[in-house]
Amino acid sequence: MRESYQNRLNEGAPRDEFQPRSTPRARIVSSIECPPAARALSPPRASNRLMLPYRLLAPVLHRIDPERAHRAALGALKLGIAGRARGPDDPRLACTLWGLGFANPIGLAAGFDKDAEVFEHMLALGFGFVEAGSVTPRPQPGNPRPRLFRLTEDGAVINRFGFNSRGLDGFVARLRARAGGGIVGANVGKNKDTEDAAADYVQGIMAVCPYADYLVCNVSSPNTPGLRGLQARGAISALLARVLEARARSAPDPDHPPPLLAKVGPDLTEEQVCDIAEVVLGCGVDGLIVGNTTVSRPSGLRSRHREEAGGLSGRPLLPLANACLAAMYRYTRGRIPIIGCGGVASGADAYAKIRAGASLVQVYSALVFHGPQLVQAIKRDLARLLAADGFENVAQAVGVDQALGAASTSPAATGAQGDR
Ligand SMILES: Cc1cc2nc3c(=O)[nH]c(=O)nc-3n(C[C@H](O)[C@H](O)[C@H](O)COP(=O)(O)O)c2cc1C
Fold first, then answer.
1. Quick one: which of 96, 187, 313, 405 has the fewest CB in 10 Å?
2. pLDDT digits (tens, 9 = 90+) for 58-74
3. 317/414 Cα distance (integer angstroms)
4. What is the pLDDT of residues 307-325, one digit of tens each?
5. Average pLDDT over the chain, rounded to whole?
6. Which residues share a beta bridge with 260?
């Protein structure tokens, strides 16, 4: 018999750590590297439920500079021509974390909607949650262009944006004005020229806390000098203590503040993973995102852009991100929810992250290559993989590869056809 995630977590974990909390923001909304054969059950295909199939748009978007293409995509979303997903998600995909009801575990990672302009449009595409940001307290332009590169042959992206941000004021105003439901996280960073980094995070968290469903301190972007140093044991411990205190002061309901997560990178050493795990288990942070882009350049990259400076994301990041996720799940002993991020491009990729220890999964770079209909394809295939392995819901599959040992592979995944 498979032991439920909740049962395993309850061993030694504070009783209410994962229990739903009642909060005004809580609402139910409308979804280790795998064997190659498991890559996905079927390729993302244009859905006739979306108004403009991405396969028609992609050749145009991919001929223009990536940053302009991104702006064009944001414009298309605002005009409503990217369409919307219809119909409820498979009930198997529903999950509850921190008292928030997720219709599905597939989220949009930070960086796509840095200024909180299109989170409602992205929710309408079928994401179970959307993370806006990273936002910095004051507006700043980021690094000089070009600073975004498509590595098409590798299914990857390199960016060195350096927290281009229009600042907190507009970001908060747009979050405050949101009309619809859905789960929206706010990811905060620091201005490049701020010396007391924690002060920026405190300012950001206090500003977004009343309007976001969850909060993220991004301490892992490789494009802001010194930022990743905040992942060191002493630094992250001091930072999180200040930020948690700021959250307590600014939460509309102090008994039920929005969950606070730290986003870490995939380039951590095992010792750093262990340190961070100990800190987060001890300090009251609610979750982790593992992780950000990598400064490494895995062998085998073919694109002429592979030596560009910045953070690499997309397909080549998957093994590194999954190894880091699995290590973090082991060191945190499954006691704190982890959002798995990095390299997901199929339902099988998402499933592998869940089996490695992710309670939720985020996607960004694969959207560049597969378009918005990827969300529906990931959810469809994930639901099939869960069903084929006899899981009634996502929570039952979280961390099973860790619990069963590294040799365990998913029967459904092993039998699936690769397609990427
Ligand atoms: C163009 C770009 C900009 C990004 N900006 C941010 C950011 O502002 N804050 C952040 O936490 N992560 C940012 N990220 C990292 C993503 O959220 C994600 O962690 C990473 O890309 C790995 O996921 P993926 O392989 O699915 O893209 C950015 C990624 C890309 C590609």
1. 405
2. 887 788 999 999 999 99
3. 21
4. 999 999 999 999 999 999 9
5. 86
6. 215
| CA-based nearest residue to 157, from 370, 371, 369 | 369
Q: Quick check: helix, strand or coil at residue 253? A: coil
Kindly give the number of the ligand 1 atom that is closest to the alpha carbon of 110.
17
Query: Do 157 and 312 form a contact (C-beta atoms < 8 A)?
Result: yes
Q: Which residues are catalytic?
A: 221
What does residue 372 show for φ and ψ, rounded to 5 degrees? Answer: -65, -25
Q: Strand pairing of 338-341 and 360-363?
A: parallel
Q: Which atom of ligand 1 is nearest to the CA of 365?
A: 27
Structure tokens at 162: 């350096």
Ligand 1 mutation target, pool 364, 365, 375, most atoms within 8 A of CB: 364
Task: Please state, in angstroms and rounded to a whole number, the distance separating the CA atoms of residues 151 and 347.
Answer: 22
Distance CA 144, CA 141 (A): 8
Cα separation, 164 vs 171, in Å, equals 13
Q: Which residues line ligand 1 (CB under 6 A)?
A: 109-111, 114, 133-134, 148, 157, 159, 161, 187, 218, 221, 263, 292-293, 313-314, 317, 341-344, 363-366
Q: How far apart are CA 304 and CA 302, in angstroms?
A: 7
What's the length of the chain? 420
Query: Do 159 and 149 form a contact (C-beta atoms < 8 A)?
Result: yes
**pTM, entire model:** 0.88
Query: Within a 13 Å sphere around the CA of 397, how many CA atoms are in the beta-carbon half?
Result: 34
402-411 core/surface letters (b: 16 or more CB in 10 A; e: else): bbeeeeebbe
Q: Which of 293, 320, 368, 378 to mutate to test the pocket of ligand 1 (most atoms within 8 A of CB)?
A: 293
Residue 6 has pLDDT above 90, yes or no: no
Range with top average pLDDT, 14-18, 229-233, 238-242, 371-375: 238-242
